[in-house]
Each structure stands twice: as structure tokens, then as C-alpha cells.
Target: Pantothenate synthetase
Amino acid sequence: MQTVTSIKELRERLQAERRAGKRIGLVPTMGNLHQGHLRLVESAVKNADFVVASIFVNPLQFGPTEDLERYPRTLEQDQEQLQAFGCDLLFAPQEQEIYPQGRDGQSFVEVPGISDLYCGSTRPGHFRGVTTIVNKLFNLIQPDVAVFGRKDYQQLHVINRMVEDLSMPVSLIGVGTERADSGLALSSRNGYLTAEELAIAPALYATLKTLARALEEGASDYPALIEQAQNDLEKAGFMRDYIHILRRSDMLAANADDRELVIIAAAYLGAARLIDNIEVSL
Ligand code: PAF
Model:
């Protein structure tokens, strides 16, 4: 697997593959890869002839008081794992290569409405940063297919909207969440948890499962169910951010007629903010 850091090298390398008629797959990441990312690479290998991964800790999607500086950077280890899982090319640029106009001078792409809800409400500007970098990566790599994790449920929905709204010629694949035996969704940010917090963290998914079961059994007082779930999380040691019961199609508040639902949650535990979700069909 070759690693390139410049746009020029990236384009030259991809031109040769495209001329050879290869179907290009992209796995965008911020590095510090875990098993969840490697499942994305496996999916890309299955669905494309030439797989590109990107590693770029995108400053535009971090708020001013967030963890940009301490976000784990483990390039060598990531390269080894990507190579072992069949990735063909790694694009690992520096910030100047991606944002030569600086963080504030950069043009951006924004999906209105949904980008300001849920994680977008707690993290203003986050999704604008995500759609801007993903759009840029799509323009640079021109993938036939791009693979994202379903753990970032709202992110995948926002990127889907961007692709549809702007008629981007790329197919998106969403890959299911990879979990530890405890049920905890794998995330690079789990590394911020102490041993004690790691023992508490699985309560997030356990709480979502309990809520999903209640819905399947016919409970319909959504505000009361959510309040109960928030209390359970607080008892376990979390600080609340949000829990929402949504319609899957547009990620807006579900009502009594909706059958295809998703419950999304975010909660703080020590230095980490964890997110998770579960789909429910009634
Ligand atoms: O999911 C992530 O790791 C990031 O949000 C992404 C899609 C790589 C954009 O920086």
C-alpha cells in the first residue's frame, strides 16, 4: 500500500487506476483505526477494485473547546492495519494541503436543517465541517463508492442528503456498528475513558436496547420513555446530552403512525462524549 500526502500525487495515482477501468472505493477516516474502521475497509474491498482510505483529522468539524489537539494520531499503526486489510492507497495530507485558504477562508458545503439538530445542536458547525471535507474528498478521489459507519447515524444521513441534493455521482454504503463484547460501540474516543468509565460505558447501548424493547412491546409515551432512559444513564454515571426517537426516513421526530424508527443518543462520560443508536421496526 502506497501512502501519498499531496493532491498532485493522489490525482496522478488515481488517474492510472481509472484509465485501467477500475472501480474506486473510498473509506474516509480521521485515523486511530479500530476494528470498526477495518470493517469499512473490508466492505470497500468487496465493492470496489481499488480502495483508497484517507486519514485527516479535519479541524473544520471540531468546535473551539473540543478535542482537536488531543485527538489520537497513530499513523504508522494505521498504515499497517490498512495494508493488512487490503487497502491500496492511503491519502494522509497535512492541513495546509487541504485548506490552503486557512480554516476561516475556506468555501463550505452545508446541508440545511438536519445539520443543526441533535449532534449539530450540541456541536454547532460540526456537520458543515463534515460535509465540506467529505465533498472535498469526493472531488479529489472521485470514488464510485464511499463507505461510512452507521454508528455516526446522523452523519451518514447528512452525507446522503448532500449526495442526493447535489447529484454527486457516488454510491454510499453504511456499515453496521462494531461493538465490544460488552455492547460498547467501538470509537476512537473510547480511548479517553478511564478503566472505571469503560466499565460504565456499555450502559449507553444497554439503555437504548431497553428503550427499543419497550417500543416493540407497544409503549408509546415517547417523552416518558426518554426521561426514564435519561435517568437510567445518569444513575449509571453519564451526564445527559440527548436521546431522540426518530423516523428513519428523514430523522425527524417520530409520531404514532411511524413504524421504521431509530433511537439516537449522545451522553457525556468523563472526558468523552459517546454516541450510539439502535433501529426499531414496529
Ligand atoms: O466519521 C469520521 O471519521 C469523520 O467525520 C469523516 C467522515 C472522516 C470526516 O472527517
